[in-house]
Specification:
Number of domains: 3
Helix content: 25-40%
Distance between the termini: 33 Å
InterPro entries: FAD-oxidoreductase/Apoptosis, FAD/NAD-bd_sf, FAD/NAD-binding_dom, FAD/NAD-linked_Rdtase_dimer_sf, Reductase_C
Keywords: Dioxygenase, FAD, Flavoprotein, Oxidoreductase
Strand order of the largest sheet: 3-2-1-7-18
GO molecular function: dioxygenase activity; oxidoreductase activity, acting on NAD(P)H
Number of strands: 24
Cofactor: FAD
Organism: Lentzea atacamensis
């Protein structure tokens, strides 16, 4: 291959570029990104960035970026995949390449009159809004919503979190562990409302619930998930279904095109995790250079979240058989394991709250089994 184009300049795209160079690719490398910013770390945006403790955190220093010897096309959206080797861009130009890495990530689901938090520009707008707000409403009690709620409370805001499900994070952690995480809101003075949908959000920020209740809010943030950024692929040669369809090695139906990160539906699973993006990039680029699937990625599903001074860690999958291995939910410091329904001795998932050491030890054993 003489030219490889990476479409997406965030974590998955950058790690793909680095992996290609490490694996010996010395040809032309074009990196296309819809933001004007060089790659930065997203997790701090909902925490220390909102609190004004840090500015944008680069994912690589300038020397590392220079070592890539890449051609950056920033502030440019991919608008179409014209063929198996040509991508149209929003500035009217095209990029022709022998190989393509699709790393376009996700697009936040939105509600009119609300903020979202996905990009650095989103975070700047939200931080400015927080500066004058007294009451903050958060729609969605998932990890991102809870982190924003935590930051707002640290800034002294009155916070109300609204979750449509009866228990937060049920789909990720199960009901019992989701409830344990949800209790953190009350511990720190935030109001958590569950089991009710939002009807609408007023222009001035007030939230109208489906049961007729009104929640006062100067600023409202929607943290209701993302959808894969695949609109530009519609009608093109790459298969799309809840993301870019690819095998466990990130290879699409076209062997010269791979997908990584939030946009990749690998072997029927799409993982929106920081670690998955990094790990997938190593495997997918190896397969791209080989011209076939010579390696696969086993998704461990590791995710962490910092909320109200507590670190929550999770890996694997949740089941109905969950057991506290150490500590207690009441103390907000514990490790719990999830057991396989067919063999209760098999640990298939681990969740921890403020107990990183034991989590790491158990995780090591789990990774050997997956």
């Amino acid at each position: 291959m003489r030219t490889i184009a990476i479409i997406g300049a965030s974590l998955a795209g950058l790690r793909s570029a680095q992996a290609l160079r490490r694996q010996g690719f010395d040809g032309r490398l074009v990196i296309v990104g819809d933001e004007v910013h060089l790659p930065y770390d997203r997790p701090p945006l909902s925490k220390d960035f909102l609190l004004g403790k840090v500015e944008a955190v680069p994912l690589a220093d300038q020397d590392d970026l220079d070592a890539l010897n890449a051609e950056w096309r920033l502030g440019n959206c991919a608008t179409a995949l014209l063929s198996h080797g040509e991508v149209a861009l929003s500035d009217g130009t095209t990029v022709e390449a022998d190989g393509i890495v699709i790393a376009t990530g996700g697009i936040p689901r939105t509600i009119p009159n609300t903020h979202v938090l996905r990009t650095l520009d989103d975070a700047v707008k939200l931080r400015e809004a927080f500066a004058t707000a007294q009451h903050v409403g958060i729609i969605g009690a998932g990890f991102i919503g809870a982190e924003i709620a935590s930051s707002a409370r640290s800034l002294g805001k009155d916070v109300t979190v609204i979750e449509a499900l009866p228990t937060p994070l049920t789909r990720v952690l199960g009901a019992e562990m989701g409830a344990a995480c949800g209790q953190l809101h009350g511990d720190h003075g935030s109001t958590l409302i569950t089991g009710i949908n939002v009807d609408s959000v007023n222009v001035d920020g007030g939230i109208n619930l489906a049961n007729g209740r009104h929640v006062n809010a100067d600023v409202v943030v929607a943290g209701i998930g993302v959808r894969p950024a695949t609109d530009w692929l519609a009608g093109g040669p790459v298969k799309v279904d809840n993301g870019v369809v690819c095998d466990a090695g990130g290879v699409t139906n076209l062997k010269n095109i791979v997908a990584v990160g939030d946009v990749a539906n690998c072997a029927g699973h799409r993982a929106e995790h920081w670690t998955s993006a990094t790990e997938q990039a190593q495997v997918a680029t190896r397969n791209l250079l080989a011209g076939e699937t010579v390696a696969t990625h086993t998704n461990g599903g590791y995710v962490w979240s910092d909320q109200y001074g507590v670190r929550i860690q999770f890996i694997g999958r949740a089941t109905n058989d969950v057991r506290i291995e150490d500590g207690s939910i009441e103390d907000r410091k514990f490790v719990a394991t999830y057991r396989d329904s067919s063999n209760e001795e098999d640990i298939v998932g681990i969740v921890a709250m403020s107990n990183a050491r034991l989590f790491t030890r158990l995780r090591r054993n789990l990774k050997q089994a997956v």
